[in-house]
């Protein structure tokens, strides 16, 4: 029997979509998640219910910060490859709950690395974040840019993950690839993300908060494009060469940043409702603009996002109305 694949954070937004595509290939997939209450647990359970319809899917309720539970999973299941998406997400949440980030993003990541070492994994793909670029002024962000000055604890933990994975790739030889995600959106998304909160408030006739008075840009990337990139990378582990170990970092975004104002206008159009807006200054830990340089991932894997913001938000709005029966 072919060894299963492991996806951590399987009940998460990106995790569910990645699992679905792997299962559609006919692969055996193990999913783990701790189903914490950072946001609505019922949404996570609904995502899991979709996955459990597939015969090739098995789920384990595990917190990655639990060393013994993670070690036992790797010992008994021996996954051949790992896509590590579990993490404590969110920049703003880290301002008040720092220990959650240390537990999940640092301790949890060490546990996953140790598991991969124990089974001599064929490839570990792990989630980093565009937040590692901090307040870098040069746009678009390139993987060769310095990322030594994070402006949030969340960003600092993601930079730490990149360093930790590099050391394991160097010491133990298993291939590691980190993906710096840029503002992922779409159906089954995270309620803590701005576009999700905007939608809820707009349909409820409530005020939405526009930070930095709308003078912001984001490289919004539709979920299907993200999953396409994740799997292209997953299928092609890096090899060690004279430049270093089998370790790579890639931006994975849209390479087409949108003004926050236009994003809100498009959301109003697809919802058919005008938003009530209030302007606020920039929040601590936030950045004015993000823009992914996709030269490297496009060269190596032919990755090229195809979903426009108009098409992507329309699909999200349709899903939202259906799921929440609006």
UniProtKB/TrEMBL annotation:
Domain NAD-dependent epimerase/dehydratase span(s) in chain numbering: 6-253
Family matches, as CDD domains: UDP_GE_SDE_e (cd05253)
Record lineage: Bacteria, Pseudomonadati, Pseudomonadota, Candidatius Mariprofundia, Mariprofundales
One Pfam family cited in the UniProt record for this chain: Epimerase
Keywords: Isomerase, NAD
Name of the protein described by the UniProt record: UDP-glucuronate 4-epimerase
Molecular function in Gene Ontology: UDP-glucuronate 4-epimerase activity
EC code(s) of this entry: 5.1.3.6
Signal peptide, first to last residue: none
Species whose genome carries this gene: Mariprofundus ferrinatatus
Domain of life, source organism: Bacteria
């Amino acid at each position: 029997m072919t060894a299963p694949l492991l996806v951590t954070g399987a009940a998460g937004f990106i995790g569910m979509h990645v699992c679905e595509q792997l299962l559609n290939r006919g692969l055996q997939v193990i999913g783990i998640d701790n189903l914490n209450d950072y946001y609505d647990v019922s949404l996570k359970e609904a995502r899991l219910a979709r996955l459990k319809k597939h015969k090739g899917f098995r789920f384990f309720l595990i917190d990655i910060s639990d060393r013994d539970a993670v070690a036992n999973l790797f010992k008994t299941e021996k996954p051949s490859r790992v896509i590590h998406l579990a993490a404590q997400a969110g920049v703003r949440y880290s301002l008040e709950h720092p220990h959650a980030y240390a537990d999940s993003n640092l301790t949890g990541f060490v546990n996953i690395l140790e598991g991969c070492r124990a089974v001599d994994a064929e490839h570990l793909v792990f989630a980093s974040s565009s937040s590692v670029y901090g307040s870098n002024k040069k746009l678009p962000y390139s993987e060769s840019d310095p990322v030594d000055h994070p402006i949030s604890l969340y960003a600092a933990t993601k930079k730490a993950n990149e360093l930790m994975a590099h050391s394991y790739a160097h010491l133990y030889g298993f291939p590691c690839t980190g993906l710096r995600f840029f503002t992922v959106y779409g159906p089954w998304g995270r309620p803590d993300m701005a576009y999700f909160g905007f939608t809820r408030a707009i349909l409820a006739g409530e005020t939405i908060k526009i930070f930095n008075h709308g003078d912001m840009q984001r490289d919004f990337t539709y979920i299907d494009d993200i999953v396409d990139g994740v799997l292209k990378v997953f299928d092609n582990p890096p090899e060690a060469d004279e430049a270093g170990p089998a370790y790579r970092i890639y931006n994975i975004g849209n390479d087409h940043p949108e003004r926050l104002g236009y994003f809100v206008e498009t959301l109003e159009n697809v919802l058919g409702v005008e938003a009530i807006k209030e302007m606020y200054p920039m929040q601590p830990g936030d950045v004015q603009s993000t823009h992914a340089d996709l030269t490297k991932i496009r060269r190596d894997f032919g990755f090229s996002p195809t979903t426009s913001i108009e098409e992507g938000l329309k699909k999200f709005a349709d899903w939202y109305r259906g799921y929440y029966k609006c």
